[in-house]
Specification:
Strand order of the largest sheet: 4-6-7-3-5
Helix content: 40-55%
Number of helices: 18
Distance between the termini: 42 Å
Structural class: mainly alpha
Number of domains: 3
Shape: globular
Strand content: 5-15%
Length: about 400
């Protein structure tokens, strides 16, 4: 792997927190903040109410400490401010492709089982395996129990992390983790494809037949568990997920974007063609995704692409992972085109603030071009009479 890719690997581990973002609840926030010891006692009481023996709970928390490094990692995700071309070129190297294909051969029987049981193609799991941990080589060195407790105590997202902390206690009670020794990503994910405790409890699989689920040491266990996870998130067997396309001149750009879906037959009728292979079945709903506007790469996103957002909420990560999966399945390198220059992180923040001032929900002014920001950008482009490709430019920033 290129040095840049290795330097980026820990940042990908920091992607909050993979598919578990979809598990956030909408009720009042659970108790958070204040004295850490007093807060831990509250979690212990809740765990006891769920049926855990006091000695189990006390043993779990005996080594748990808050970790400021976790909070620093949580607040520092600037890597996702990069655009698709920059991000994908940093993550996808010939070495990663070669290692992916070698692992596809090495674990051929495992991938055959996953494809038969869950309908998830090997390229999809290989891409996640590569990006999450570089095929198991970089799994993270944060103490998992400390990370979950720190994030559950922090008042930014306790509704997400407190249930995962309670799930970690259950995982410990079942012999699935050691709170003093188990390590992983800063957000509490464990193993080669980075799964949170609740998801391990629900989807952990023994893929190598040794009678236990070891997501850190066993690629077979990790891959099979990841396949089951994707299936539980709604993966549709024997259907595509993302495909590079060529757009006809003059296509109505207001039809593009993940919030606009038409059937493949309707896209064909408008002149959309694949760059390689055949488009999906005519009846499949699909969206045209222009990650860098009308001048950059163009993709058709199928229903399975939506499942990627259950794994990770970052649009640039999701698009790159889905595209890399197609490469591992034999697709060519995308046509980068000649996109208009994008915005810097500071400019993106200013744009998001101006969009919010106009009443758009962009999910916060964080400098990251997510789908909510893209939808707001497209709406303003339409209002201002600019090309409505959802790609924010300085011309749009100035116009606002």
């Amino acid at each position: 792997m290129r040095p840049k890719a290795r330097l980026l690997a820990p940042l990908i581990l920091a992607a909050l927190p993979a598919y578990a973002q979809a598990q956030e609840t909408t009720g009042p926030k659970p108790p958070c903040g204040g004295d850490f010891g007093a807060w831990v006692n509250g979690v212990k009481s809740e765990a006891a109410a769920l049926g855990h023996a006091p000695q189990t709970v006390n043993a779990f928390f005996s080594s748990v400490r808050p970790d400021d490094a976790v909070l620093r990692a949580d607040r520092a995700q600037g890597v996702f401010q990069r655009d698709f071309i920059d991000f994908s070129r940093r993550l996808i190297s010939e070495n990663r492709i070669a290692n992916g294909r070698a692992n596809a051969d090495k674990y051929d029987a495992v991938f055959d089982r996953i494809e038969a049981d869950y309908g998830v193609p090997r390229g999809v799991l290989l891409a996640f395996w590569a990006f999450e941990t570089d095929y198991g080589a970089v799994q993270g060195d944060f103490n998992t129990a400390n990370a979950l407790a720190t994030l559950a105590h922090d008042c930014r997202r306790p509704e997400l992390f407190r249930p995962q902390l309670l799930a970690a206690i259950e995982l410990y009670a079942q012999g699935g983790m050691d709170p003093a020794a188990t390590t992983g990503a800063w957000a509490g994910e464990i193993g080669q494809v980075q799964m949170l405790p609740a998801d391990i409890l629900e989807n952990g699989m023994d893929g190598d037949g040794d009678g236990r689920v070891d997501l850190k040491g066993s690629p077979s266990d990790a891959l099979l568990s990841g396949g089951k996870m994707l299936s539980s998130l709604g993966w549709r067997p024997n259907e595509p997920w993302l495909q590079e396309i060529a757009l006809p001149q003059g296509i109505d750009l207001t039809l593009t974007g993940l919030d606009h879906k038409m059937t493949v037959a309707e896209w064909k009728a408008l002149g959309v063609t694949p760059r390689s292979g055949d488009l999906g079945a005519d009846s499949l709903p699909a969206s045209v995704l222009l990650p860098m506007g009308r001048g950059g790469p163009a993709f058709l996103a199928y229903p399975n692409f939506d499942v990627y957002f259950e794994w990770n909420q970052s649009l640039v990560y999701v698009t790159t992972a889905a595209y890399f999966a197609t490469r591992l399945e034999g697709a060519p390198v995308y046509d980068a085109g000649n996109p208009a220059p994008g915005l810097s992180g500071e400019e993106m923040v200013r744009l998001q603030e101006r969009l919010q001032a106009r009443g758009h929900d962009v999910g916060g002014a964080d400098g990251i071009l997510g789908e909510k920001t893209r939808e707001a950008v497209q709406a303003e482009q339409i209002r201002l009479g600019l090309p409505a490709d959802a790609w924010p430019t300085r011309a749009l920033l100035d116009a606002l």
